[in-house]
Each structure stands twice: as structure tokens, then as C-alpha cells.
Specification:
Serine Threonine Protein Phosphatase 5, Tetratricopeptide repeat; 69% helix; 7 domains; 951 residues; mainly alpha; five-stranded mixed beta sheet
Length: 951
């Protein structure tokens, strides 16, 4: 979901966003005070001052009307203005504004002409005349109206902040239509700052500058301007709605929802906020809910709003024609209605296209972007957005042409500029056609990665396709980004997908393109299993295309995670134990937002966990074939609410009940020990004071004191807890820790052994006692204690890690291997576990296992020469000498100073019947290490015996 892209659509209809700048000449002190209150968002207080004199004083009527409008009482505002309008041009202009906002264009036209007749220089009426021409498709006349305001500015010394605002809006519109890119800089750096110099409290100047920055995707400056506006008027609903759009763009959905709710609390009739609410439903794969919001809430406010009608058309299209390229009959009817009123309804088609692109209907979205360009070529948004769509589809040649056109028209658009930079980087990358996919990568930094990735993809891609019964018709494109032009690959990867360097993941898929950060760039920092990531993203490619992008987020993610294999991560089990018992779980109606609008990192974790468990639930209850049947239902265009009964023959409610029982069964099968929670000091202190005889609370408070370094308080409180509850394990742990600090290890052990209940141990106490036994080198006792922890607290890997350490120190090879296997399976991104397992397998001459673990390690860090050497050694043991030679050569390439790899390479050549190559490898080794053991002897054995002299 890319809400920030809709800002261009919003700006196309800037009039509904105009807020309460008040310009009048009344000198009464009370009206001046009311104006200040109005600008500060204190609408009720301002209304109290305006209302008593509104019928007599036009400025008060205008101020009162704007107070009412800002709080959603537009009808009452029109009534107030109607009573006082008379021959007052400003009041007729305001009446025109209200009529325009509700789509009553004839009434708006009447009041505009009346206002201009009364005052030829009535700037809001002049601006609105242009807007009326625009929505009627009379674009030449609209442009002349905007130009009139620009000429007025050039011919007059404008000393009023609000007047500068109308001029700025006209200048922005005129500049967009005529590709006058320098005007953007003038507006944000001169005109709107000038308005603030004239009136420092005039927050709409900050607001308009913020919208211009948002239009160009300059989020940093946009935030600065919008927050400056909100600081001046914390109740400005339009500013709150704009900040909500920005929050969504930054994936802070909780803040976005709160901002929209705040905006609607101030003004329940704010069209942009209601459209934002509908957009959230749309993003959650709920087109019917979005449609209901649009038709019941948004459309009555302005039945002619092209931004609303475009969204409604998208709902119709998805609901009526979920698969294929046809057009819904209801959409065709809307086309006729909208274009009948406005033959240049570019905003309508642009909004429709943006919405469809959000749902990955790329072919349909492209069609409507082109229609928007055709009917209103003045618009900037459709060209840039079409280029972004082409990038998502992998059509980079076409995208460059469109991006260059968009950049020529609007060089300040950050996303367009960034994407052109990405294309320049891509031009410098190599392309490898594996036969199944197209792999693009940095030829200098990632050549080795590309070689192994291509092999991995070719070996597995057919199997992945068979898994789901579908093969994409074209070769998917995978692009791996490393540092280029001094910019990290993570930022290039993110920009490749969204035009901005803000994605916090290492890989993502559009359904046609997979982009990822090179794992080579992240070595030593946060390595990841690049093969597992590729497998995950290609599942998205298959399932998204297989269902014509109708598959909901939860199902494609669930399938992708399921195909990764392996046990549930520790973090997932912890989340299940924490949330399932209290009912804090997602259902099919909310889980998509766990991905697109998580309110916390726990939500993100739980969404992935539950999505995969939905897949496992189907497998356990119905079997593997039903996964494909559900895919088929989505391919037919069914929604989840329709697909569940269609496929499984039960209602969605029954499906959910079974799933919840499945979750509860999983949690019942998990166990964990009760680790104390840090960060509760104030709460514990109060509880202890309220009930000083509660031994459990006293023990927890003692632990909290210990964590704060308050040792005396910790000792006193722990002793009190032990007196209240003899052998209280947590309190005993605190006392034992204090003895350890005093290096009284035997005393600590005595305390712990006396108090510990091994059937129901306190985990801190158990862990400390085991660590102390390990310190004494009593490995058997340490192993027994850590094993108790692993058995009773299996969701916590610290016990398994501790056992691995014990087995390593005790030199218990077989036990160490088993512990490391559990750790490697639980954390497939950890290089060291796999390397150690490969080495242990080699030491035990278990060559198949060694080859497997070395290969897994390569899929985490392909640039580790030691891993390639171990892989070669395993392959020699398996008599696969040609493959071993390849691995040894790679090891030598990566670690040229490692003599062991060079000697092994020579030996592999010799065993493969390649003495000349073996001789060359040995000579290279001896040149670097002249005394390497055995190298000279092996070389001499390869020398050809001298032929005897002829007699």
C-alpha cells in the first residue's frame, strides 16, 4: 500500500483541502481575538465571539462560518453566510467554496460570479473560478483563471497572507500543467515563507508547503512543515489527515489511524479522512467495506468528487471482474457519468489506477494510467506512477522512457529521481540467464554469489512450481543490490521497489520481480540465509501470479514461510504463549493488517506465525490438496469470506473456531518457565508496601533491586522473602547472586541446591546453579541441570546453547553435534553453527553430513573461504573430485594465503587424474610457503623421471 502516491490525487482537488485563513479588515479588538483563536484551532471559543455580531458584521459572519465548517457543520455555515451575504464579495466567495466542496457546481458558479462582480480582485473567487472550469473539463479557461492570479501577484505588492495562499495554489497548478519546475522552489522557499512573515500565526502556509513536499515525496521537509502547522493549530483536521498519509507511507499504521480519528473527531465530514479510512479497508483486502465507507460516508459529502468516484470504481472493478482484463459494467456506467460531466477527468482515472495498482492489478492499472494521461496530459502523477508500475512489472526499458519524461516535467519528484538512479545502477550490473530466471547482480562484488544462486535456483525452481501446480509464463527477474556509488545496497534495494530508501527488510517481491540486498554487504553484521530468502520470495512470485494477485497477504506469506521448513522460531513460540491464552490473536479479517499496519513488532511476528499456522491447520485437518484448492478459489476471484465455504464446505466462522482450537492445542503442547519481567520496579514497590507479607512480591522486588544495582536493598528484601516463604527460589537466586559477587561460590551453590525445585524450577536459579557447576568443571552435573531447563522450557534456546557449551568443554562430540543441530535448525541464519557441524562431521569422516552442513553454510556466507574448503574436503571423501576441485579453487580465490586450501586443491587434482594442474597448484603453494609439510615431497613425486642418455 502506498498512500503517499495518493497525495498527488489529493492535490489535484486542492480546494476541498483549503482551511481557515481569515482575511478581513474589521478593527474591533474582539474580532481580532477571535481570529487568533480560530487560527489556533480553538473553534468553540472563537465561535462565542463571532456569533453575537455575525448578522451585523460581515467579518464575524465569515469567521463564524469558518469555525462551523472546520468542525463539520458546513450546512450551518452556509446558513450563516446566506443571512449576511448581501453585497459582500468575501461572503459570496465563501458560499461558493462551500457549494464547491459539496459538488453543487451551479451554486458555486453563481456565487463566484457574484463575488467577482462585487470585487474584481476577490482572489478566492478567482481561484475557485479556475477550479470550476477544471472540473468541467474547460482546461484552457481554467489555465487562464490561474494565470490571472499569477499576474495579479506580479502587478501588486501583496501584503496579506491568505491572498498569497490563493496565489500559491494557482501558481502550483499552472506550473504543473506547464512544466515550470522552478516554481516549486519559489513557492516553498519564497512565497509561503513570505506569508508567514506577514502573519506568523498563519499555519496554512506551512500546510501548503508540506503538501508540495509530499507531492514530491520529500518526506523529511514535509514532516517539518506539517508539524509546524500542527504546532500552531493542533486541531487542524486537514493537517492531521495529511500527517496520517505520511504515517502510512512510513508504515506507522497505528499513528495513521490515530491521526485520522483525531481529524474526524474535529470534523466528521472531512472528505480526505473518510477516504483514508476507506483506503485502510482496501489495503486489508476488504473492498466491500471500503465501498460501504465510500458510498455511505464520503460520497454524500460530494457526489461529484472524482477522488471518491475513482475509489468506488476500483471497488466495482475488483468485486465485479476479479480476474481478467474486462471492465465492470458498473465501472463503465461511472465512466459515462464522470466523463459526461468532465471529458478531461484525469483525476478520476488516476485515482482508479492507483487503487488497482495497490491491489497488484498491474495490467488494469496501466490501462487507466494511460487513460488519465490521454484525457488530461497536464497531470504529472500518472506518468511518474506508470513508470513506477513498469518497474514493478520488470519492464525497465519502458520504465526508463516514462521516468525520463516524468523527470523532465517534474525534476523535484524524489521518487522519479531515485528510480532513474536505480536504473543507472542496474545498467552497470551483469545479467545471468539461468534458463529459468534472470539474475541481475554486481559483477565485481557478487559474481560468486550469482554463480551459487543460479545453481540453487535452477536446482529447485521446477520443484517449487510443482509444489503449487503453477509455472509463471515468463522468467522471473531477481536483482541483487550491493554498495554502488557510495550508497549501501540495502538503500538501492528499497529504492528499486518503492522509490524511497526506507524498507526495513532485506528482500521483497512484486510478484514479477524479486529484489534483495546482497548478503555479502551484510557479512559480520546481520547475515542471512540468502537461499531461504530467495525460496520465500519465489513462492510469492508463483502464488501471486497463479491467483492473478487475488491471494490475500496472509496466505501468500503463510505458504512462503511453510515452504521454508524448519521448526517454529523461538520468538513465535513466545508470542503464542503470551497472546493465545488472552485472546490477543488475529483472525482472517484482521491478519492482513498484521503485515501492512502492525501496531507493534509483536504484531508483525504474530502475523507471520499465525499465517503459517493457518497453512498447517489446513494440512492437518484436510490435507495437502486443499492448499491448492484454496489457491484455485482465489484464482477464480473469490474473497476469503467466499473461498472458505467454497473450498472447505464450512462457514468462515466454523473455520475460525477450528483454527482457534488448533492454536490452543499448540500452546497446550508448549511449556515454558516463568522468567521474571524487568521494568516493573515502581509497580512492585507499591505492591510490597501494600502487602509486605506477600513473599512472592518481596522476591520479585528483591530481583528488581538487584537489577538496579541496589545490593543492600536486594539482600534485605530477599532475606525477608525467604523468611516469609522458606526456599523461595527467586529470593534465593538473589542471595546467591550476591554471594557470587563476593566470590563465595560454594555458599551460592549451597543456597541454590537447598532451595531449587527441579520439578518446577525458577529459571534464574536453575541457570545460575548450572553455570556454577560448569565453572567447577563438573560437566555431568551442569549437563543434567541445563537439560532440566531445556525439557521444561523448550521455547528458550538459551538452555540448548548452554548444553552445547558444556558438551564442547567436556569433549562430548556426539552430544555436541545433536545440540548444534537443534540450534542450527532453530536459527537457519547462523553461520557458526553450520560451520562447526561441518567440521565435526569431517573430523568423524561423516562426509555426507559434512557436505550438507558446509553447503548450508555457503548459503549464509558464500564468501567464506574456510567453508568452501570444508565443502571440498567433504566432496573428496565422497569421491566427487571434480566438484571438490571447484570448491577448493573457490577457497583459494577467497583466501589466497591459506596453504591448507592450496594443498588440498593439488591433492584433489592428483586424485582426479590431473597431474599437470596438481603440479601447478603445488608450485604456487611452495612459492608462498616454501616449507609447507609434504608439499615438496608430493611435487617431487609428480616430476617426470629423466630419460637415460643414449649409448
Amino acid at each position: 500500500m502506498r498512500f503517499v502516491q495518493r497525495l498527488t490525487t489529493v492535490l489535484l482537488a486542492a480546494w476541498p483541502l483549503l482551511v481557515v485563513g481569515v482575511a478581513y479588515t474589521a478593527e474591533e479588538e474582539g474580532l481580532g481575538e477571535a481570529r487568533g483563536l480560530l487560527l489556533a484551532g480553538k473553534y468553540a471559543e472563537a465561535e462565542e465571539i463571532y456569533r453575537p455580531v455575525a448578522e451585523k458584521e460581515p467579518a464575524a459572519a465569515l469567521g463564524l462560518a469558518r469555525c462551523l465548517r472546520e468542525t463539520g457543520k458546513a450546512d450551518e455555515a452556509a446558513e450563516v453566510l446566506g443571512k449576511a451575504a448581501g453585497d459582500h464579495a468575501a461572503l459570496h466567495a465563501e458560499l461558493a467554496r462551500l457549494a464547491f466542496e459539496r459538488g453543487d457546481y451551479p451554486a458555486a458558479q453563481k456565487h463566484v460570479e457574484r463575488a467577482i462582480a462585487l470585487d474584481d480582485d476577490q482572489l478566492p473567487a478567482r481561484w475557485l473560478r479556475g477550479e470550476l472550469y477544471r472540473v468541467a473539463g474547460r482546461l484552457e479557461k481554467a489555465e487562464l483563471a490561474y494565470r490571472w492570479l499569477i499576474r495579479y501577484y506580479n502587478d501588486h505588492d501583496v501584503k496579506d497572507a491568505e491572498s498569497l495562499r490563493w496565489i500559491g495554489l494557482a501558481a502550483a497548478r499552472y506550473a504543473r500543467w506547464n512544466r515550470l519546475d522552478d516554481q516549486f522552489s519559489f513557492l516553498v522557499n519564497e512565497l509561503y515563507p513570505d506569508a508567514l512573515k506577514l502573519d506568523p500565526a498563519y499555519w496554512p502556509a506551512h500546510y501548503e508547503a508540506g503538501l508540495l513536499y509530499l507531492e514530491k515525496y520529500n518526506q523529511g521537509d514535509a514532516v517539518r512543515e506539517l508539524r509546524a502547522a500542527l504546532e500552531q493549530n493542533p486541531q487542524a483536521p486537514e493537517v492531521l489527515a495529511a500527517l496520517a498519509l505520511l504515517a502510512v507511507a512510513e508504515r506507522d499504521i497505528k499513528e495513521a489511524e490515530e491521526l485520522l480519528d483525531r481529524a474526524l473527531k474535529v470534523n466528521p465530514r472531512l472528505l480526505e479522512a473518510l477516504q483514508g479510512k476507506a483506503d485502510l479497508a482496501w489495503a486489508n483486502f476488504e473492498p466491500r467495506e471500503a465501498l460501504d465507507l465510500l458510498r455511505e460516508k464520503a460520497l454524500p459529502l460530494n457526489p461529484l468528487s472524482e477522488a471518491t468516484l475513482g475509489r468506488i470504481a476500483a471497488c466495482y472493478q475488483v468485486l465485479d471482474v476479479p480476474v481478467g482484463r474486462g471492465t465492470s459494467g458498473r465501472v463503465e456506467k461511472l465512466f459515462a457519468e464522470v466523463t459526461g460531466r468532465n471529458p478531461h477527468a484525469g483525476e478520476f482515472f488516476y485515482t482508479l489506477a492507483v487503487q488497482l495498482e495497490d491491489r497488484n492489478k498491474l495490467d488494469q492499472a496501466e490501462r487507466f494510467y494511460r487513460r488519465a494521461i490521454e484525457v488530461m496530459p497536464q497531470l504529472l502523477g500518472p506518468r511518474s506512477q506508470l513508470a513506477m508500475l513498469q518497474m514493478r512489472a520488470g519492464d525497465e526499458a519502458a520504465a526508463r522512457t516514462m521516468l525520463e519524461q516524468a523527470f523532465d516535467a517534474d525534476p523535484f519528484n524524489v521518487r522519479v529521481h531515485n528510480m532513474l538512479e536505480v536504473l543507472d545502477v542496474l545498467d552497470g550490473m551483469k545479467t545471468r540467464d539461468t534458463g529459468r530466471v534472470l539474475l541481475r547482480y554486481d559483477g565485481q562484488q557478487d559474481e560468486l554469489l550469482a554463480r551459487y544462486a543460479a545453481k540453487y535456483l535452477d536446482e529447485n525452481y521446477d520443484r517449487w512450481c510443482r509444489e503449487f501446480g503453477y509455472r509463471p509464463p515468463g522468467k522471473p527477474l531477481i536483482e541483487i543490490f550491493n554498495t554502488a556509488r557510495g550508497v549501501p545496497g540495502q538503500q538501492w534495494f528499497s529504492t528499486r521497489l518503492i522509490g524511497l530508501p526506507y524498507l526495513g527488510v532485506v528482500a521483497a517481491s512484486t510478484g514479477r520481480v524479486v529484489a534483495m540486498t546482497s548478503p555479502n554487504e551484510l557479512q559480520g553484521r546481520r547475515e542471512f540465509n540468502w537461499a531461504r530468502v530467495m525460496r520465500h520470495e519465489f513462492v510469492h512470485v508463483i502464488t501471486l501470479q497463479q491467483t492473478d494477485f487475488n491471494i490475500p497477504h496472509w496466505y501468500t506469506e503463510g505458504l512462503a514461510v511453510y515452504l521454508e521448513g524448519g521448526p517454529r522460531p523461538q520468538q513465535w513460540n513466545e508470542a503464542l504463549l503470551k497472546r493465545v491464552p488472552v485472546g490477543a490473536v488475529f483472525n482472517l479479517g484482521t491478519i492482513n493488517f498484521g503485515f501492512t499496519r502492525p501496531q507493534s513488532s509483536d504484531d508483525w511476528t504474530m502475523a507471520y506465525c499465525q499465517a503459517e499456522l493457518y497453512v498447517e491447520y489446513v494440512l492437518e485437518r484436510w490435507g495437502r490438496g486443499w492448499l491448492r484448492k484454496l489457491l484455485g478459489a482465489y484464482a477464480e476471484g473469490l474473497t476469503t469470506a467466499e473461498a472458505i465455504p467454497h473450498v472447505f464446505g464450512i462457514s468462515e466462522e466454523a473455520f475460525e473456531r477450528g483454527y482457534r482450537e488448533y492454536l490452543e492445542g499448540i500452546v497446550d503442547g508448549l511449556s515454558s518457565l516463568d522468567w521474571p519481567e524487568p521494568g516493573r520496579f515502581d509497580e512492585l514497590l507499591k505492591s510490597h508496601r501494600d502487602d509486605p507479607d506477600d513473599g512472592r512480591v518481596a522476591a520479585e522486588l528483591a530481583y528488581a533491586y538487584l537489577l538496579r544495582g541496589a545490593n543492600d536493598e536486594a539482600r534485605a528484601t530477599a532475606e525477608k522473602a525467604v523468611n516469609l516463604v522458606p526456599k523461595q527460589q527467586l529470593a534465593t537466586y538473589v542471595l546467591a547472586r550476591l554471594k557470587v559477587k563476593a566470590e563465595d561460590f560454594e555458599g551460592a551453590i549451597r543456597l541454590l541446591e537447598d532451595a531449587l525445585d527441579e520439578d518446577s524450577p525458577q529459571p534464574n536459579a536453575l541457570n545460575l546453579l548450572a553455570a556454577l557447576r560448569l565453572k567447577e568443571k563438573k560437566y555431568g552435573e551442569a549437563e543434567r541441570l541445563y537439560a532440566v531447563g531445556e525439557r521444561l522450557d523448550p521455547v528458550n534456546l538459551r538452555w540448548t546453547k548452554a548444553l552445547a557449551r558444556v558438551h564442547l568443554l567436556a569433549e562430548s562430540r556426539d552430544k555436541l553435534v545433536e545440540a548444534l543441530k537443534r540450534l542450527a535448525e532453530a536459527d537457519p541464519d547462523d553461520l557458526n553453527y553450520n560451520k562447526k557441524l561441518a567440521q565435526l562431521a569431517l573430523d568423524g569422516n561423516d562426509y555426507p553430513a559434512a557436505a550438507d552442513w558446509a553447503n548450508r553454510a555457503i548459503r549464509i556466507n558464500v564468501m567464506d573461504g574456510q567453508v568452501h574448503r570444508m565443502a571440498g574436503q567433504a566432496l573428496v571423501g565422497l569421491k566427487e573430485h571434480a566438484a571438490a576441485i571447484e570448491e577448493f579453487n573457490t577457497a583459494v580465490e577467497l583466501t589466497p594465503d591459506d596453504p591448507q586450501s592450496r594443498f588440498a586443491l593439488a591433492d584433489a587434482y592428483l586424485q582426479n587424474g590431473q597431474p599437470d594442474e596438481a603440479r601447478e597448484a603445488l608450485e604456487a603453494l611452495l612459492e608462498r610457503v616454501p616449507d609447507y609439510p609434504g608439499a615438496d615431497v608430493l611435487l617431487e613425486s609428480l616430476e617426470e623421471p629423466e630419460k637415460p642418455d643414449e649409448p
